[in-house]
Write a structure and sequence with these properties.
Shape: flat
Number of helices: 20
Number of strands: 14
Radius of gyration: 29 Å
Largest sheet: 5 strands, parallel
Length: 555
């Protein structure tokens, strides 16, 4: 990234000024570069001289002047200015900017990649809804956020594994099995009462009817305690198939679907209980086994094994994360959870300490709720009452690209409204349409150029001097910084804003600069602009793909 190169050059200049005696010796603070809010102040600015004033016992402006005097010459730097109260402003060279178009074209689909992660193994676990019904829009935000984050982590040099945790153990699955049994029997005309607290959705009736049609009544001819778990597993397979179809329709493909049951079947639960017991992290009260979280600074202790002998939810959490860190050896784990899990964060940190693991290796990314709106009115969701709007319905109504863009367009800690009407609108008001239309427009320009026999071959990029051309190049060069920002802040929503800014820069360029001209006198400029258009198409497509969206060739 050019930002990193400029940072290095400024730090080098400070050291040189110290070596010459123009600045006293002191430990140089971190050099931070910012983008000035006003374009006339340059492309980058650093306040480092303000930070050094106390250390140097000099006025920040005087420090800045000494640093600028020692700043090495670099092809990328066009102009350097000292601005009160002590900023150093840097404007990139127009010639250097224009030459970056070739670099983008040479790099192609990997443009924007950085090596922040240096191959560290990171697992992103997202989705992971209880497998008792289809995904709704709340969980859709989970999978879109998690997958977008996984994409930018991969682009930033991490070795990423995407995982869906299948909660196929515990009381909720027992109740699901009872519900499946009742609906199966009812589908075959038997008067079997619906279980108290069961899952009332019509989707379970549909799946039970399918099983009845496929398998007949054989499960009614065996003891109920044998039939219920079998029907539970048949129902589970149908739920997971439904969920797989939904996430794949969004372009999401997991590397692993991890079964909670395996934690118990393969002995991982017993192993963590031994570790916790040896570490004096367990105690017994009221017939239950508790995790002594309070001994590790948490307000509340947690049940691991209930008084009926069944493991609690937190027992699975501990065994699962033991498996992630110790068995599979991930360097970093990111769990994407709903904001209603906020209270679980301290106990998860305590769990890491109890297992002898650095709590910093586990990150819990919490996201807020989604409100669906249509016609300005809120569309209510109620999964437990069976009155749900499924993710599949939303995808069918507005398309997978709109679902991904809108659900990614706010920071995870912000509640969001999903305007279904806007998502379908084909106008500049709809950011999805606006961004994808920019890509389609470039594709159309390139097709037209080919029809006219115009080519980018031999285009002289030094001819790209128009302010709109340079503004577009500046936007394209920001993608590596956007990826870095998205990773450091776990904030893939920055991609949506960047995509709109990039599309806007292209639309302005298209308005101001004719790309393909019939005038022979403009042939050289046309070749250079065709190169620029191809590079812009590359960066727009790259940005859309990082968001998990398609880059249409026509609209």
């Amino acid at each position: 990234m050019i930002k990193d190169e400029l940072t290095r050059l400024i730090a080098q200049a400070i050291k040189k000024a110290q070596h010459k005696g123009d600045l006293p010796k002191f430990d140089i603070p971190e050099v931070v570069l910012e983008h000035p809010k006003q374009a006339e102040h340059g492309d980058y600015a650093t306040p480092v001289c303000l930070q050094m004033a106390r250390l140097a016992r000099m006025a920040p402006v005087e420090i800045a002047k000494q640093v600028v005097k020692c700043l090495p010459q670099a092809e990328a730097i066009g102009q350097v200015e000292v601005a009160h109260p002590g900023y150093i402003n840097i404007t990139l060279s127009q010639h250097w900017l224009a030459q970056q178009v070739e670099d983008i074209l040479d790099t192609g689909e990997t443009w924007g990649n950085i090596n922040l992660g240096q191959g560290r193994r990171v697992q992103v676990e997202y989705g992971s809804a209880n497998p008792t019904g289809p995904l709704h829009i709340g969980f859709a935000r989970n999978v879109v956020l998690g997958d977008g984050l996984a994409n930018v982590l991969a682009a930033a040099g991490y070795d990423v594994q995407r995982e869906y945790y299948v909660n196929d153990a515990g009381t909720q699955m027992d109740l699901f099995g009872e519900t499946m049994y009742a609906r199966y029997a009812q589908a075959l005309g038997r008067d079997v009462p619906f279980p108290e607290g069961g899952y009332p959705g019509s989707y379970i009736e549909d799946w039970a009817a399918e099983i009845a049609a496929e398998e007949g009544d054989k499960y009614l001819h065996m003891p109920r305690e044998e039939a219920v778990p079998l029907l539970r597993d048949l129902g589970l397979s149908k739920v997971l198939a439904h969920i797989r179809q939904d996430v794949e329709s969004l372009g999401i493909r997991y590397d692993n679907w991890f079964s909670e049951r395996t934690l118990y079947e393969e002995g991982h639960f017993e192993r963590i209980m031994t570790i916790l017991r040896q570490g004096d992290h367990l105690f017994t009260r009221d017939g239950a086994v508790w995790f002594a979280a309070s001994r590790l600074g948490v307000d509340k202790d947690e049940v691991l094994i209930r008084s009926n002998g069944e493991p609690g939810y937190f027992a699975s959490d501990i065994a699962y994360h033991y498996h992630k860190f110790v068995v599979r050896g991930f360097d970093w784990v990111i769990d994407v959870w709903g904001a209603d899990h906020q209270g679980h964060v301290p106990r998860m940190r305590a769990m890491m300490q109890a297992l002898g693991l650095d709590p910093k290796r586990l990150t819990l990314l919490l996201y807020q709720l989604v409100t669906l709106k249509r016609g300005g009115e809120v569309v209510r969701l109620s999964k437990r009452k069976g009155e749900i709007i499924t993710l599949r319905e939303i995808i069918e109504e507005v398309g997978p690209d709109a679902v991904r863009f809108f659900l990614l367009s706010r920071s995870a800690d912000s509640q969001m409204d999903f305007d279904l009407d806007l998502a379908k609108e084909q106008s500049e008001r709809n950011p999805v349409y606006y961004v994808q239309y920019a890509h389609a427009r470039i594709a159309s320009i390139l097709r037209y150029a080919a029809e006219q026999g115009a080519t980018a071959e031999g285009g002289d990029l030094s001819l790209l001097t128009h302010p709109s051309e340079l503004a577009l190049i500046r936007q394209m060069l920001l993608l590596p910084e956007i990826i870095e920002q998205a990773v450091l802040n776990l904030a893939p929503h920055h991609l949506t804003y960047y995509a709109q800014d990039l599309a806007s820069a292209f639309h302005v360029f298209y308005r101001d600069c004719r790309v393909v001209s019939s005038d022979p006198a403009d042939a050289e400029v046309s070749r250079a602009r065709l190169k620029l258009a191809r590079a812009a198409k590359t960066v727009l497509a790259r940005t859309l793909h990082l968001m998990g969206m398609t880059a249409p060739e026509s609209m």
